Structures are given as C-alpha cells and as structure tokens.
C-alpha cells in the first residue's frame, strides 16, 4: 500500500473505538446447469468468445425466454439449505439498466417475489465461536456477458483504448443471496465477512449446485460496508465493493473500507453511496459509479414468463435430497480421525479436507490420504500456482496410487513419479505406471544380479557387512536402487544383500 493511500486511512483500533460497522453481503452464484437460464445454449466455461449464444440470450427481436427447470430446482435447494421459506408463488421482473455486456438493456431477475426469503447461516469463526448471519432473500436471475478492457495498465475501463465483449456468459443462471444488515460483529467484522463467504461456498459445493470457482467468477461477492457512530440510531451510508474474488480479499476489502470510511467521517466528510473496485495489488478499493436505488432500475413484471409456483410436495421432496451439512460433516470427520481443533482448522484452510475425505471414501486409509494431499500434492499445487482442488488428479486416482504402494507394486518414490504423470495428463495411475515402466521389480533373478554387481564393486562394504556392520548394507541397497531406477523393493534388496554376505 502506498504512503498516499495509507495517509487516507484511520487506524483500525480508532475505527472500532468510534464506530460500529454494519455489513451486507451479496453473493452471486453461477448455477451448474448444462444450459442457460432462459435458452438452450451451453454454459461450459472457457469456450471461444461469442460461440455459446443464440437469439434468446442475444435479445434478438421476437425471441422468447423459457425458464430452466433445473435452475429453479437448484435455487429451491439453496433456499432450503439456508433455512429459508420457499415462496409458493413468485414471478420474474425486468431490472432496467444500460451496460454494454447486457444485450437486452435489462436483466431478467426477481424483485419483490424472490424464490426464497427469511433464512440464516451460522458460521464458525477462527476461534470456534459461532456467528449467525441472517439471510434476507435468495433470488434467481441471469448473468451478464464479460467485458475485456484493452490498452490500459490496470485492465479496467479507465485508460483503456477499447473494450471487447464476450456474450457467452450472458444468460447463465444465477442465484443472488442477500444478507440482512449484519450488526454486532464489531472488531471481528472483516473476519465474519470472510467466514460467511467461506461457509456459503462450502454449503453450495456440498449441494452440488455450482463449482463455486471464485477465480472463474462462478462465485462472486459484493461486500457492503457502512459505519455508524456509537450513539447513532441509524445506519451510515454504505459502499458496495464489487466482485471480490477470493476469501482473503473479502476480509481485506471490508477492513480497508472500514478504515477509509472512518477517515472520511473523522474529517467531517460524508461517505458517498457508490460501488467500489477492490485492488488485489495493494488491498485498497477505488471509486466506481454512484450506486443506483431500486427506483432507478424501474422494475416491472416480466411479461414473457409465467410465475414460478413450486408445488409444496415437490419442495418437501427436494428438502429430502439435502446432503449432510458441511459443518456437521466436519465435526463427524474430526471425531472419526481423532484430529485436534488446530489440525482440523489447518486442513480446512488448506482446502484439503474434502479431498482427503473423498480419497478415504474411495478406499484409502485416512492417514495416507492426508499425507499425500497436505504434502506432495500441496507442493505441486503451489508450484503450479493452482488451488489444491484444481489439480488435474481426482481423489479416486490418489486412492489408486495409495493402493498400488500398499500392494508393493510402487515405492513412495515411484508413486510420486506416477502422480507427476497423472498431473501431466498422461492418463490414470495404471496407465502412467505401465507407459513409464515404473512398477517395482519383483524378479529375484534380476534383483540378485544387481545385488551381485553392487557387491562386486564394493568389496570393502562386503567385509564390513560380514563383520557384523549391517548398517553398511545401506550403501549397497542405494546402488541397487540407482541401478534399477528406483524400481527395486528396498526391503527385498536388503534381504538379498544380507543373505549374500552371510
């Protein structure tokens, strides 16, 4: 953070001493449907620009939308998991605003009749304390396209020479989850914000309604922050930091806004209601545009879509499909594995817990699964600059490697080479092992020759072994392992060396 930026901030302790922070979190979730919200275009991420579009999502005259039933089902399951009431009768609305990546110049959303209302999510803070975040609503809508600003230094519109528009994302199903004002968090407000988005991400992943990839924009957080004086009766003016795309950044953005707004208010100024953009480079926020009110959007009912009226029996049927909640699953796993709170917290923070559990579910011992994910695979993720769960290897494949080691077909060293091959896209573990010729050599004849060659090359070592210095056999074992490219079974080689020197 530059000195100029820092000079505009109040110390965090002073902010907490003079003001009470109020948060409001708006999280947009791209649903994992095969097709878009109102048309049959595919939703796969990463396709060539403007190849997943049609007259409906490009808003050609006369093209009519049709609701994606699977998206409605996913939205209801999200609402149920958030302890919400499901609206028995609702409808879509047009939210009118002009923006280049919105082909229709309005967004089909829900306004006064959302699919789910009045819920809550209990989140666990770093010290184990639970904080309840109340949910105001979860509503369905469609995503916008994507703008790429070219020619500037920051990748934003300011300073760019031109912009490119990709409409592939336009029309992808979204659920926006909006909290009620979060009060009472005090100095822990930034932590509460991070913990809430973390818990929500984990819940959505467990529901299998989204891949919740913040780096790809399938989970995006808008963090609303305001400050109110200790003796005030009304909330202060809020700002909305848009599209914060990592859990840590949510915490950093909230803390920064609290310090920035504190400095503005302390100087006798007033906070402007506006959107702001988070700067990953220094953890600051920068001014965006003045924030519109609901009246500015001129909502009115969408005339081309029937109301959404989920049958009560169907809603209860969907309630029965809800999985074990992530926090309950973690408590069960922690008890089953005998982990301390600190060990459990480390696994969760590393993004390894679900991967380890899935590997264990695939048949691997939990200890072995844990060792692979928190050591070698974590190192590979760091080297590749990827999240652990983004590595191109599945828990089932890791379990297969562990089984090959347990069966004596691979040593740990060879197993790492097999994993490297899987990560390189060479196929599954069995195929990589076969193609690279990595299976442990079990032919005693071949091993005996390698042992004999190593003994012949080291007569002094032979004399030491014959004299009772068994540890000296390590040199011979090492030579044999080198000669066999690590494919020999070290324990069997040791046996053959001792037998030959007896």
TrEMBL record:
GO BP terms: glutaminyl-tRNAGln biosynthesis via transamidation; translation
Keyword entries, A-Z: ATP-binding, Ligase, Nucleotide-binding, Protein biosynthesis, Transferase
Annotated Gene3D superfamilies: 1.10.10.410
Record has Isomerase as a keyword: no
Subunit: Heterotrimer of A, B and C subunits.
UniProt cross-references to NCBIfam families, sorted A to Z: gatB, PRK05477.1-2, PRK05477.1-3, PRK05477.1-4
Family: Belongs to the GatB/GatE family. GatB subfamily.
Record's function text: Allows the formation of correctly charged Asn-tRNA(Asn) or Gln-tRNA(Gln) through the transamidation of misacylated Asp-tRNA(Asn) or Glu-tRNA(Gln) in organisms which lack either or both of asparaginyl-tRNA or glutaminyl-tRNA synthetases. The reaction takes place in the presence of glutamine and ATP through an activated phospho-Asp-tRNA(Asn) or phospho-Glu-tRNA(Gln).
Designated name of the protein: Aspartyl/glutamyl-tRNA(Asn/Gln) amidotransferase subunit B
Source organism of this protein record: Tomitella fengzijianii
Gene coding for it: gatB
């Amino acid at each position: 953070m530059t000195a100029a930026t820092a000079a505009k901030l109040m110390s965090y302790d002073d902010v907490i001493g003079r003001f009470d922070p109020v948060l409001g979190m708006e999280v947009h979730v791209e649903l994992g449907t095969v097709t878009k919200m109102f048309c049959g275009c595919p939703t796969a991420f990463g396709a060539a620009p403007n190849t997943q579009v049609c007259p409906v999502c490009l808003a050609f005259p006369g093209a009519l939308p049709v609701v994606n039933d699977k998206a409605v089902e996913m939205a209801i399951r999200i609402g149920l998991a958030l302890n919400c009431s499901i609206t028995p009768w609702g409808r879509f609305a047009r939210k009118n605003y002009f923006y280049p990546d919105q082909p229709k110049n309005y967004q089909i959303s829900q306004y006064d009749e959302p699919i789910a209302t009045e819920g809550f999510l209990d989140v666990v803070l770093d010290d184990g304390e639970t904080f309840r975040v109340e949910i105001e609503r979860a509503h369905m809508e469609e995503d916008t396209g994507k703008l790429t600003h070219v020619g500037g230094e920051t990748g934003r519109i300011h300073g760019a020479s031109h912009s490119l528009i990709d409409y592939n994302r336009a029309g992808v199903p979204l659920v926006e989850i909006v909290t009620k004002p979060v009060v009472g968090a005090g100095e822990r407000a930034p932590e509460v914000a991070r913990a809430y988005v973390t818990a929500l991400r984990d819940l959505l992943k467990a529901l299998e309604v989204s891949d919740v990839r913040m780096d790809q924009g399938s989970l995006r957080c808008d963090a609303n922050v305001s400050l109110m004086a200790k003796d005030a009766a009304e909330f202060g003016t809020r700002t909305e930091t848009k599209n914060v795309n990592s859990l840590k950044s949510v915490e950093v953005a909230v803390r920064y806004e609290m310090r920035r707004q504190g400095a503005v208010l302390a100087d006798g100024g007033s906070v402007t209601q506006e959107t702001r953009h988070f700067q990953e480079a220094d953890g600051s926020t920068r001014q965006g545009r003045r924030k519109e009110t609901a009246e500015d959007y001129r909502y009115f009912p969408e005339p081309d879509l029937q109301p959404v009226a989920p049958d009560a029996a169907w809603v209860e049927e969907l309630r029965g499909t809800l999985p074990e909640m992530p926090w309950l699953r973690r408590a069960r796993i922690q008890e089953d594995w005998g982990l301390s709170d600190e060990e459990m917290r480390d696994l969760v923070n590393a993004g390894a817990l679900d991967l380890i559990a899935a590997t264990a579910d695939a048949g691997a011992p939990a200890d072995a699964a844990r060792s692979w994910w928190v050591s070698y695979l974590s190192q590979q993720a760091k080297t590749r600059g990827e999240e652990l769960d983004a590595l191109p290897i599945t828990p089932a494949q890791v379990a297969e490697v562990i089984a090959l080691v347990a069966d004596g077909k691979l040593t740990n060293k060879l197993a790492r080479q097999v994993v490297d091959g899987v990560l390189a896209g060479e196929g599954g573990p069995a195929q990589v092992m076969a193609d690279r010729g990595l299976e442990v050599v079990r032919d005693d004849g071949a091993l005996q020759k390698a042992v004999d060659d190593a003994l012949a090359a080291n007569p002094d070592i032979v004399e030491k072994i014959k004299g009772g210095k068994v540890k000296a056999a390590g040199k011979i074992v090492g030579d044999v392992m080198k000669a066999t490219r690590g494919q020999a079974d070290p324990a069997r080689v040791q046996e053959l060396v001792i037998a030959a020197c007896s």
